[in-house]
Target: Diphosphomevalonate decarboxylase
Amino acid sequence: WALMVTGRTPTNIAVIKYWGKRDETLILPINDSISVTLDPDHLCTTTTVSVSPSFDQDRMWLNGKEISLSVGEFQSCLREIRSRATDFEDKKKGIKITKDDWQKLHLHIASYNNFPTAAGLASSAAGLACLVFSLAKLMNVKEDYGQLSAIARQGSGSACRSLYGGFVKWIMGKEGDGSDSIAVQLADENHWDELVIIIAVVSARQKETSSTSGMRDTVETSLLIQHRAPKRIIQMEDAIKNRDFPSFARLACADSNQFHAVCLDTYPPIFYMNDTSHRIISCVEKWNRAEGTPQVAYTFDAGPNAVLVARNRKTAALLLQRLLFHFPPQSDTNLDSYVIGDKTI
Ligand code: DP6
Model:
């Protein structure tokens, strides 16, 4: 026999960025962060986890290619979930698995991303969140979402925010064991559904500096990192609560720019954005200034791709027109394509 569970998890985009760890093993951050979870139809990971007495070892495939499960991130998540497995019984199929059986049985895991892996589109967030969620379902884990988020966090920090839809806050926590470093939902996916997200894929290539090593260098060498403003978290929570787009946009853009300034202040300096990214920023800033109030927000993660948030559908259509005019895909502007999240949040 074999038991199987399939889960689907969208990626999330931070509007107040997580950058820097106070504990690298448990993945405990040095600041709170806030993100928006995308609609699962667009950028998501689908993961099938199965268990069978005929499997002789744990194995995993990513986009059809076998990958090693021995890396620390996977091992932490597997260990944490296994330790919380509970008895399972399917009388019809005559399957009974006890808590102790789960420790011995092996797993096969197949995961697919419908977007480029490790290109700064938060693939690790969707991937690890989906893995933890699917395994928890398979092994009959009874923990709530907050506790599951703390497990996903140990796979990749940003993954803890992908367990919820809508707007999510990852509370950095104070405890040494990470028990209070969990994600909570600030507002669900229906709260502010006129927002539309467009992702301009400047480059689908894998990023040169991984978030993990970039963060380590920043914490060790940047002086600017101490000046990241914790006040922004409260202001962003208010902007989301009140659906205040001008404040939301100002805070998201400022935080993205501050994050990239911190990267530049790191030794050796980290450049995630390129010329095309900078031109997109100028284009949005000019438009927002001309309108007198922000219409579009931009944010860039650990890569050159632009995540653009339009205040409504009408603005999104105009934005797309402008982008296509200034940055035609596959031209020398080096823009690969656009991913448009309709009713994204
Ligand atoms: C810039 O979550 O990928 O996207 O915890 O080392 O796996 P690890 O890093 P990761 O870092 C994401 C950084 C970011 C900002 C964010 O998503 O908050």
About this structure: The pocket of DP6 is lined by residues 14, 17-19, 27, 33, 122, 124-125, 156-158, 211-212, 301-302 (CB under 6 Å).
